[in-house]
Amino acid sequence: MKLIQRDVNKSLLVLNMFFLLLFLAFTVYYQIALKNTLKEKDGYSQKIGEVTAQAVMQKLNKSDVAKELALIDKVVLESKYNELLTQKEKLEEDKEALKGEIIVLNSQIEYHQARLEGPVAQFRLVQEKNDEIQKLNERIGLLCSKISSYNITAKECE
To answer: 3-state secondary structure string, the chain?
Structure first.
């Protein structure tokens, strides 16, 4: 029996050694495989980081170009606006001058018509102008009272 037990113990020892070596081989294999996988992952992570950085830089460059174009457009539009503003002011001054000329010319026409029609027409013209002056004076008085109700003084209302 001792012989059988010795053979069994030896075979169990050999079997244990075999499984231990097998376990060790699998452990080393999976360790190497895991190490290679982590290296690949690190490589891919680095490549993704580089690609992301390049994409961000391109996006920033594009936004800088767009910003520069917007600033150039702004300067051009401001200069055009200033030109149009000065042109508008000049046209408004011309308009006011022409309105004054129209008033003068209309009064000259009325005066000449009244002169041609005689003294009665002149009297009617003077009467109409006096009525207009009276209405304007009433309007000025109304505006001055409104202005004084807001505690504002005007040189014309004194």
So the answer is: CHHHHHHHHHHHHHHHHHHHHHHHHHHHHHHHHHHHHHHHHHHHHHHHHHHHHHHHHHHHHHHHHHHHHHHHHHHHHHHHHHHHHHHHHHHHHHHHHHHHHHHHHHHHHHHHHHHHHCHHHHHHHHHHHHHHHHHHHHHHHHHHHHHHHCCCCCHHHC
Q: What is the pLDDT of residue 104?
A: 87
Q: Which residues of 104-115 are buried (b: 16+ CB within 10 A; e: fewer)?
A: eeeeeeeeeebe
Domain boundaries defined on the chain: 2-106, 118-158
The pLDDT tens digits for 38-80 are: 999 999 999 998 888 888 888 877 777 777 888 888 888 889 9
- Could you report the per-residue pLDDT of 101-156, keeping only the tens digit for each? 998 898 888 777 777 777 777 777 788 888 988 998 898 888 888 888 877 777 77
Question: Which residue shows structure tokens 């018509």?
Answer: 113
Determine the Cα–Cα distance for residues 110 and 116; give it in Å rounded to an integer: 10
